[in-house]
Specification:
The protein is of the alpha/beta class and 273 residues long. The protein is built from 7 helices and 10 strands.
Length: 273
């Protein structure tokens, strides 16, 4: 069996200010550093086969804390995986989020350097110079092909369990989990946004016995199960107690519902643990 644990990065300076972060290299806050150490300590007795991370500092530094807490010999790691960086927001990065103004098109908002929260129905829309949600979905598929599938193939060939960690970002994690589930022909809908350093776990079981003859780029018959979602047991006393709404929910992978032309609110379907 291949187990994949996907961990969101610790609190960043942009998270605190409710700014569009995207691919901007904003660092962890002091609380974010403490969160990273806490999640590292939580997984100290979990032996990872390999640890991967987005190259953005907030994810890379969180991954380093996880690696530091691993027993010796440390597992191999790659903290340069561009495919699991956050969605690029282009010109919006570093700007405050805002609510859409009635009667104004998105193009007019962009011309005024205003970047409102986009709705779930606008997955094809991107901020100038950025990626759309559809673009991110395609990138999540590539990440699974390039990072996860080689481990699936290895488990199938050798009949030996592996457990990898991916340290990434809220929106990207949602797309990667969906892409992993689709390896087994299933679908997955996130239950709600993830707080900083919360984690999701996915299990991929090879069907029909092992070892299996399989090509490098071939998906063997698998059963995929999301066993944990939004887990944050390690964060007692290290959370911003404000509600998971608006930008905090969106960056954690929450969906956005357009209830009226001037209202944009992230709707968590369940509370984050």
């Amino acid at each position: 069996m291949l187990t994949i644990t996907l961990i969101r990065h610790g609190e960043s300076t942009h998270n605190v200010l409710a700014l569009w972060s995207g691919c901007t290299e904003c660092p962890l806050t002091e609380r974010g550093t403490q969160q990273a150490r806490a999640v590292g300590a939580y997984f100290a007795n979990t032996q990872f086969t390999k640890i991967y991370a987005s190259p953005l500092p907030r994810a890379r530094d969180t991954a380093q804390a996880v690696l530091d807490a691993q027993p010796t010999p440390k597992p191999p790691h790659d903290f340069t995986v561009a495919q699991i960086r956050e969605q690029s927001f282009g010109a919006a990065e570093g700007h405050q989020t805002c609510i859409r103004e009635p009667g104004k098109t998105l193009e007019v908002h962009f011309a005024e350097e205003k970047y409102p929260i986009l709705y779930e129905s606008e997955r094809h829309v991107a901020f100038p110079g950025g990626e759309s949600a559809e673009d991110l979905t395609k990138r999540g598929e590539r990440a699974v092909r390039e990072v996860v599938l080689p481990h699936v193939v290895n488990v199938a060939r050798l009949g030996r369990d592996e457990h990898i960690a991916l340290v990434s970002h809220g929106l990207c994690i949602a797309q990667v989990v969906g892409a992993i589930v689709r390896l087994g022909g299933g679908t997955w809908k996130r239950k709600g946004p993830m707080v900083n350093t919360a984690w999701v776990r996915v299990e991929v079981r090879i069907q029909g016995g092992m070892p299996v003859e399989v090509a490098d780029d071939e998906v063997p018959p698998v059963e995929v199960t999301v066993t944990d979602e939004g887990r944050a047991n390690h964060l007692e006393g290290l959370l911003d107690e404000g509600p998971l709404r608006g930008m905090k929910a969106i960056m954690g992978g929450g969906v956005v519902d357009a209830k009226s032309p001037n209202e944009a609110e992230a709707i968590p379907q369940t509370s984050a643990v």
